[in-house]
């Protein structure tokens, strides 16, 4: 049964203070709760008290000290209802739960013997009976009782206020969190953990102790996360004026975690993959991911915790804003253009696909069955793109004033997306009413653009027409306010021309606003014929179509002053060539490589540049997934063949150039996750990929050497992947075996070992996936293992997942069915590739649908049911 956004009502009762006592035991943890409740001032008296609760065994219940009779309350599988309660009262309950049997990883569970919690969005109801909704905010006081031996460390939100030993080798700790919070921000950790400690002095002079808690063997993998945390704390002060508000900030790493991390007040809990790094075990990408996630969770302390969401429909209020904040942070400390290229490339592949599929939803959905299905690319990443547009529309200064106003006005409250946008409107004086449609309309807007240069009047006429395709439940769409950042690049000068629009100067790089269905912009005094550079820095999350010729694109690739659009011109040029090759493959015609692409790449490779990071990005071809996004009907085999053909043609034609790039960028200094080093490694490794695409002898020697040198995981993993993915399986076999033995003790490295094998393009891979699922290092109960093996196969091995005999689909649905019982959230995420069946040929459509029907016939969790039902609707 769906929940609807318009049904929102304030809670009948609110909790002012929550007292909890946990007596920990793996299969029989006792949770006592004393809730100080009162009628909500906005609601009438006499309403029943409804508390959520799932999988709880009630042991005792009392109201204002009086034990209740069984006739005084009703318990069902959703919770506890008491028909009559006073205006103000204390409710005491005691329940029993079984953390060691909790495989869903929601609520209180055990990971490697460590007790930990995940309460967002609705996990707290698996801990105790409670009004489990974000607009109920209370102060918390929590006592944890555990075993001195197995749980020497007992952690909770806020400040430690008491501790001591008890009988039978037990001990306790009491924590108080003075900041009122919704229960989804509650956290508890208990286990045998070790810490590293550091300090940060806030701008207001508060001395904050920073602790990172890990299992002992991971103590040497904490340095980068701690350094990232300190950078994030400083950045939020400098950029947003936001200061930390407790004396202690803790991060805990656990192995079993459904997502990346969680921003619990003062006690962030992280998937170990999102915290732990070491040069020998983590790649540059992992280092950057850790930095981004540590910052993201820290930034939530203001955008999420101090000001939170009124209801879960507002999830993007905290997530969109916080992703925008972490993206800006990463851009500031690494390379801004590369960060933007990587984010946009990912967004245009994955979010566009979501927006075009059966689970498309607005950034602020109107209804849901299971909220955990809405931790999506749309809520997070598209939400961040919308905040970015707001930021660009009003300008940084007004945006910062709006942000200050928002934090000041709503501190300690649970609010809505309108509240946020209203602050931006108030601070800037802009009318943002049309802009609000971004929050309610699903689907990716497309802009059809064309332009014409009028020589006689020196004018350039640019026409933009927008349309948003229908999405489930939204057949009609309205025009959006789309900011298009652009330049006009003179074909003679190769420079940005000054733009004049309606008598006003836009400068050489400016923003035009498309608010109507269609509009023609007339630029005057345009001295030479230009090529327009549109949607610079991906200024709006839209698809832009412009009839660029290949000459135009080669020109922009060489001359665009916007790094992002220079990269994009290269991608568009490659896509045009790929289109021809895909058609040739389908028609059985001989493939011919477009020499303009080769020449463009030659220019890139031989022109000296000081931005190696951007160059590396420019040398990467669009991914198979992104190419598929551009096709009306996805032909996975043709896409793979065409892309391989381009890779090999480039490698043959530019072999010496790639070799020189490799050789010029292989200096091996002590590993550091610094932008310059990362740029050199990625440039060198792109070059090596091309050389290995043709199994060049010298390239192969370098690849082996790079693997054996064992200098850092970035280089080792890249070399191993190239060896294992080469057409001669024997090339990588021994290295793969040695790698697996060497790292058998490190689950995060074994994840990489699994992924490398299951993304091999050769056809025997399905058997390999099945075989690896029996490997002792694999477990269906661990989300990282599932994603590294099954998820990587289904999402990143397109030719094999979509095999025509349907084996790939069958394998995935087998896993989904089994996982549905263990961990519904992960199962629902895993099913995604099958839900995109509309994009494929009839044979595959039928096979994919048959698997979805098979899943649907099972007794399903709401999570999997919601996704599968939408996919089949
Ligand atoms: N709020 C967390 C974050 O974005 C993620 C919450 C995870 N929720 C879940 N149901 N797994 O950092
Ligand atoms: Zn978040």
Question: Which secondary structure elements does this structure contain, and how are they paired or packed?
Answer:
Elements: E1 3-4, E2 13-23, E3 29-39, E4 49-52, E5 57-63, E6 66-67, E7 73-75, E8 79-82, E9 88-97, E10 107-111, E11 114-118, E12 138-147, E13 153-156, E14 159-165, E15 170-181, E16 188-191, E17 194-201, E18 207-214, H1 223-240, E19 248-254, E20 261-262, E21 267-271, H2 284-299, E22 308-309, H3 315-333, H4 336-355, E23 367-368, H5 377-394, H6 396-410, E24 414-415, H7 417-428, H8 437-440, E25 446-454, E26 459-467, E27 482-490, E28 496-497, E29 499-501, E30 504-507, E31 510-514, E32 518-524, E33 530-534, E34 543-545, H9 550-559, H10 563-587, H11 595-606, H12 612-618, H13 624-630, H14 636-653, H15 655-664, H16 675-693, H17 697-709, H18 713-725, H19 730-742, H20 747-758, H21 765-772, H22 783-796, H23 798-801, H24 807-822, H25 824-830, H26 832-835, H27 842-856, H28 862-872
Parallel strand pairs: 2-12, 18-19, 19-21, 22-24, 25-34
Antiparallel strand pairs: 1-23, 2-3, 3-9, 4-8, 5-6, 5-9, 7-8, 10-11, 11-16, 12-15, 13-16, 14-15, 17-18, 20-21, 25-26, 26-32, 27-28, 27-31, 27-33, 29-30, 29-32
Helix pairs in contact: 1-2, 2-3, 3-4, 3-5, 4-5, 4-10, 5-6, 6-7, 9-10, 9-11, 10-12, 10-14, 12-16, 15-16, 16-18, 17-18, 18-19, 20-22, 24-25, 24-27, 25-28, 27-28
The chain binds arginine and zinc ion.
The site of zinc ion has 4 residues, from helix 3.
């Amino acid at each position: 049964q769906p929940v609807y956004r318009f049904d929102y009502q304030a809670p009948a009762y609110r909790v002012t203070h929550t007292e909890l006592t946990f007596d920990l035991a793996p299969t029989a943890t006792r949770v006592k709760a004393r809730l100080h409740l009162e009628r909500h001032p906005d609601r009438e008296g006499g309403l029943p008290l409804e508390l959520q609760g799932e999988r709880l065994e009630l042991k005792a219940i009392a109201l204002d000290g009086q034990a209740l009779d069984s006739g005084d309350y009703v318990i069902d599988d959703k919770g506890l209802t008491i028909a009559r309660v006073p205006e103000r009262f204390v409710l005491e309950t005691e329940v029993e739960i079984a953390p060691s049997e909790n495989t869903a990883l929601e609520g209180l569970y055990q990971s490697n013997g460590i007790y930990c919690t995940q309460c967002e969005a609705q996990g707290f109801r698996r801990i105790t009976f409670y009004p489990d909704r974000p607009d109920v905010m209370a102060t918390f006081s929590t006592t944890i009782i555990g075993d001195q031996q197995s749980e020497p460390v007992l952690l909770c939100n806020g400040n430690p206020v008491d501790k001591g030993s008890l009988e039978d080798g037990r001990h306790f700790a009491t924590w108080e969190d003075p900041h009122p919070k919704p229960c989804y921000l509650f956290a508890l950790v208990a286990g045998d953990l070790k810490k590293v400690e550091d300090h940060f002095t806030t701008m207001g002079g508060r001395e904050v102790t920073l602790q990172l808690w890990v299992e002992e063997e991971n103590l040497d993998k904490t340095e980068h996360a701690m350094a990232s945390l300190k950078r994030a704390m400083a950045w939020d002060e400098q950029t947003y004026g936001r200061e930390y508000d407790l004396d202690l900030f803790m991060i805990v790493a656990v192995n079993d975690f459904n997502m990346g991390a969680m921003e619990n007040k003062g006690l962030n809990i992280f998937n170990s993959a999102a915290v732990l790094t070491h040069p020998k075990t983590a790649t540059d990408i992992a280092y950057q991911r850790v930095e981004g996630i540590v910052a993201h969770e820290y930034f939530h302390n203001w955008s999420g915790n101090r000001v939170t969401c009124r209801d879960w429909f507002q999830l993007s209020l905290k997530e969109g804003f916080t992703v925008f904040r972490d993206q800006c942070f990463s851009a500031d400390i690494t390379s801004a253009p590369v960060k933007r290229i990587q984010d946009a490339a990912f967004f245009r592949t994955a979010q566009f696909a979501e927006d075009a599929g059966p689970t498309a939803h607005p950034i602020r959905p109107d209804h849901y069955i299971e909220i955990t299905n809405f931790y999506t690319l749309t809520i997070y990443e598209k939400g961040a793109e919308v905040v970015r547009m707001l930021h660009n529309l009003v300008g940084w200064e007004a945006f910062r004033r709006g942000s200050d106003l928002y934090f000041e006005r709503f501190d300690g409250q649970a609010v809505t997306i309108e509240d946020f946008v209203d602050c931006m409107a108030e601070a800037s004086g802009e009318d943002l009413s049309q802009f609000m449609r971004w929050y309610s309309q699903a689907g990716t807007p497309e802009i059809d653009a064309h332009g014409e240069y009028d020589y006689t009047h020196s004018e350039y006429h640019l026409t933009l027409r927008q349309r948003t395709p229908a999405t489930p439940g939204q057949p009609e769409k309205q025009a959006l306010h789309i900011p298009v950042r652009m330049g006009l690049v003179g074909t003679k000068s190769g420079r940005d021309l000054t733009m004049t629009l309606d008598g006003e100067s836009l400068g050489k790089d400016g923003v035009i606003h498309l608010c109507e269905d269609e509009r023609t912009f007339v630029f005057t005094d345009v001295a030479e014929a230009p090529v327009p550079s549109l949607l610079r820095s991906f200024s709006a999350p839209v698809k832009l179509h412009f009839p660029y010729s290949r000459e135009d694109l080669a020109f922009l690739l060489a001359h665009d002053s916007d790094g992002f659009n220079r990269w994009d011109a290269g991608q568009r040029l490659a896509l045009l060539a790929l289109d021809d090759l895909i058609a040739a493959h389908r028609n059985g015609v001989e493939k011919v490589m477009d020499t303009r692409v080769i020449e463009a790449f030659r220019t890139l490779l031989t022109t000296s540049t000081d931005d190696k990071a951007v160059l590396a990005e420019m040398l990467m071809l669009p991914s198979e997934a992104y190419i598929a996004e551009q096709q009306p009907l996805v032909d996975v085999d043709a896409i793979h063949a065409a892309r391989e053909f381009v890779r090999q043609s480039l490698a043959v034609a530019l072999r010496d150039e790639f070799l020189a790039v490799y050789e010029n960028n292989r200096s091996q200094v002590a590993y550091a996750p610094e932008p310059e080093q990362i740029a050199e490694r990625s440039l060198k490794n792109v070059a090596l990929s091309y050389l290995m695409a043709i199994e060049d002898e010298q390239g192969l020697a370098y690849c082996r050497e790079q693997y054996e040198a064992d200098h850092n995981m970035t280089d080792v993993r890249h070399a191993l992947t190239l060896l294992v993915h080469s057409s001669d399986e024997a090339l990588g076999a021994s290295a793969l075996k040695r790698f697996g033995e060497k790292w058998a003790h490190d689950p995060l490295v074994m994840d990489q070992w699994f992924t490398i094998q299951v993304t091999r393009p050769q056809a025997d891979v399905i058997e390999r996936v099945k075989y690896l699922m029996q490997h002792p290092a694999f477990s269906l109960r661990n989300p990282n293992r599932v994603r590294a093996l099954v998820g990587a196969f289904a999402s990143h091995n397109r030719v094999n997942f979509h095999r025509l005999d349907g084996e790939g689909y069958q394998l995935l649905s087998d896993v989904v069915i089994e996982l549905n019982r263990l961990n519904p959230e992960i199962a629902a995420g895993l099913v995604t590739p099958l839900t995109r069946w509309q994009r494929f040929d009839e044979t595959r459509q039928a096979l994919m649908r048959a698997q979805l029907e098979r899943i649907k016939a099972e007794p399903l969790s709401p999570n999997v049911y919601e996704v599968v039902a939408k996919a089949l609707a």
